[in-house]
Design brief:
The chain is of the alpha/beta class. It contains ten helices and six strands. It has a single domain, classed as Ribonuclease H-like superfamily/Ribonuclease H (Nucleotidyltransferase, domain 5, 2-Layer Sandwich). The termini are close together. It holds the Pfam family DUF429.
């Protein structure tokens, strides 16, 4: 099996891509690229068994309805005063709330945080994949699944705090060491240095590991009664088993 992980950014300069090759005994990083353009992303994802993208695949359905109503001048408020709960309903998707409840960790809002710019790029990427014959099922059932590396690390018992940006390379190095100890069967090959110096590269590897979990069915399921909503908003693949379960 070949899994791909994408740490997506609004532009290619901070976009990273990892390719893992799986055998009966573990996995090896086949390639780890930074500064990845759309053409490379499409080709690599198309040639993978499963790809994990670290970016929301959709927007909150309530937010979409809110914007449409506002544009049409037909917005109906829930009462005389709007509440935090009302605003949160516009800011967070069903999967965001689910993950927060499961791991006690917040998720960025695709409708009100800067990650929205990256989500625009992700929407374009989904359209390009569809044109290439690889349409994206936002529930994760197809060739692409949405991932959240911090949540995966949390589920695997690895502390995902304070490793972002170049100011925190020491913490990132410790996290890489923790990953190596927790998954000795993962061969970083010649890319360990890249993981230790770039959180984008490291997150791409975690995204590829999470894609493997999703491919094996080792992630949280959504309530079937919410399938229509998830198909529009997207669903984060949250691992349910330890890293070692990925070796099967």
């Amino acid at each position: 099996m070949r899994t791909t992980g994408v740490d997506l950014s609004a532009g290619p300069e901070n976009t990273a891509l990892a390719i893992l090759e799986w055998t009966a005994t573990g996995a090896r990083v086949h390639a780890l690229l930074r500064g990845v353009d759309d053409t490379t992303l499409i080709q690599t994802i198309s040639n993978s068994d499963k790809a994990g993208i670290d970016c929301p695949l959709g927007w909150p359905e309530k937010f979409r309805s809110f914007v449409n109503a506002h544009q049409a001048g037909e917005l109906v408020l829930p009462g005389q005063y709007v509440s935090k709960e009302w605003r949160d309903g516009l800011a967070f998707r069903h999967t965001d709330v689910f993950v927060r409840e499961k791991i006690g960790r917040g998720v960025l809002s695709v409708s009100s945080d800067r990650i929205g710019r990256t989500a625009m790029q992700c929407a374009a990427l989904q359209a390009m994949l569809a044109s290439a014959g690889r349409p994206v099922d936002r529930t994760g059932a197809g060739p692409v699944v949405e991932v959240y590396p911090a949540a995966s690390l949390h589920r695997w018992g690895l502390r995902p705090d304070g490793y972002k940006t170049s100011r925190n390379v020491a913490v990132l190095g410790e996290l890489v060491e923790s990953l190596r100890n927790a998954a000795p069967w993962l061969d970083l090959a010649g890319y360990e240095s890249a993981c230790r110096t770039s959180d984008h590269a490291f997150d791409a590897v975690i995204a590829a590991l999470t894609a493997r979990a999703a491919a094996l069915g080792l992630t949280e399921d959504f309530d079937p009664s919410r399938s229509d909503l998830v198909a529009v908003e997207g669903w984060i693949a949250l691992p349910t088993y330890s890293l070692d379960a990925l070796k099967q």
